[in-house]
Amino acid sequence: MVFSHVVQLPEKINELKYFGNLKEKVIDSGLCSHCGTCTVICPVYGIQAGDKPIEFPDWEKECIDCGSCVKVCPRWDYKPLSGVGDYIELIAAKSKRFSGQDGGMVTEIMAAALEMEVIDASLFVDRDEEWRTKIVTIRKPKQLEKGTASGTKYSFADVMPEMRKAVFRARKGVGMVGTPCMVSGLRNIQSEVTSFRENVKLAVALFCTENFYWHQLRDFLANKEIDLRKAVKTDITKGKFIVTFEDGEEISFSVKELDEIIPSGCKFCIDFTGIESDVSVGSVGSDAGYSTVIVRSKTGKEILDFIREQGYADFGEADLTAVEKLANFKIKKNRKNLEGI
Ligand SMILES: Cc1cc2nc3c(=O)[nH]c(=O)nc-3n(C[C@H](O)[C@H](O)[C@H](O)COP(=O)(O)OP(=O)(O)OC[C@H]3O[C@@H](n4cnc5c(N)ncnc54)[C@H](O)[C@@H]3O)c2cc1C
């Protein structure tokens, strides 16, 4: 018997190798969201993310022209997603076990998933003293009781580059937390690669208006004499960027001032809630100290029901209109940039 398997390669836009195509159409054009999905799939480990635009040093020589990077890139054949999306439940919640950026619900959801053995590893975005992002693998809820793995870091993080290792090491499954673009990248790679489809069991998206390069945010804040090394929390809320220090002092300024350092790729995004996730979590739509939780999948629902049964969180009503308002604001802000791409 003869088996034939035909892999459909994407159509090129130039004569170069595939990475040269990705570079021209997505990276150099400024469309790239920096989700990092291309770094995961590159079979020669050539593509790099980090605190700089996506690059592949010496790609003319090293790229094997397999087309994988182009195949999984959410911005190659870009079909922008938007809105609140389909959901089973939308609720405000606050973890009783963990503190976090808002209600600590992302941390709670991952801890519950570990306890339920839906997953045996979860990738979190931790930080160093200067707020540079670093990825940590959480295997036990206890690891989340202290430290800085919870909480929002307003900088790109190498979640996707770390996914490959996590997926291959998984015994039960992997949970990931990411911005909406990362979740879109994950879904693309899951449709191409069986191990990702089978092993990534839970994807939590964070509501997102924009992200930043760490060095640009640090320099911007340094110009305002804000030293991130002394900060314990950074937050964007109600149009303000707020930095909180160890002694409780706060400095805030209009988030519009950050427009000059918004990475180009974020200006093409209209997906505020991360509609391809299992669960989306954000700040808007809930009282202070609570997270807005949008449950979309059966797995997400089982985890939230477990949290309820165990009494791990307090619940309240979330304001759908407030979420829709910010989702629509993002569409209005960036729709023009999508014309003609
Ligand atoms: C760049 C960015 C922009 C955001 N913009 C908005 C917004 O405009 N409106 C809004 O309502 N909410 C926004 N959020 C989400 C919000 O800040 C909180 O993360 C969310 O409400 C969850 O709070 P929590 O207490 O439940 O999470 P926690 O329990 O504190 O957990 C936070 C989780 O986020 C992960 N994380 C932290 N930083 C990053 C990062 N850079 N990339 C990927 N994962 C990360 C951590 O690993 C952790 O798993 C944004 C988040 C990010 C990362």
Low-confidence stretches: none
Number of strands: 11
The general outline is: globular
**Bound ligands, each once:** flavin-adenine dinucleotide
> Helical region count?
11
Instruction: List SSEs in N-to-C order.
Output: HHHHEHEEHEHHEHEEEEEHEH
Fraction of residues in helix: 25-40%
Question: How can the largest sheet be summarized?
Answer: 8 strands, mixed
- In spatial order, strands of the major sheet run 3-2-4-5-9-10-1-11
Rg result: 20 Å
Protein topology:
Layout: H1 18-27, H2 37-41, H3 59-62, H4 68-72, E1 89-95, H5 105-115, E2 121-127, E3 133-138, H6 159-169, E4 174-178, H7 180-192, H8 194-199, E5 200-206, H9 214-223, E6 231-237, E7 240-245, E8 250-254, E9 279-282, E10 291-295, H10 298-310, E11 313-316, H11 320-338
Parallel strand pairs: 2-4, 4-5, 5-9
Antiparallel strand pairs: 1-10, 1-11, 2-3, 6-7, 7-8, 9-10
Bound molecules: flavin-adenine dinucleotide (FAD).
Keywords summarizing the entry:
single chain, 341 residues, alpha/beta, Alpha-Beta Plaits, Nuclear Transport Factor 2, Chain: A, 3 domains, three-stranded antiparallel β-sheet, 11 helices, 18% strand, binds flavin-adenine dinucleotide
Describe the structure.
The chain contains eleven helices and eleven strands. The chain has 341 residues and is an alpha/beta fold. It folds into three domains: 55 residues, 2-Layer Sandwich (Alpha-Beta Plaits); 208 residues; 41 residues, Nuclear Transport Factor 2, Chain: A (Roll), CATH 3.10.450. Strand 2 and strand 3 form a beta hairpin. Helix 5 packs across helix 10. The mean pLDDT is 96. The structure holds flavin-adenine dinucleotide. The site of flavin-adenine dinucleotide (FAD) has 34 residues, from helix 5, strand 2, strand 4 and strand 9.
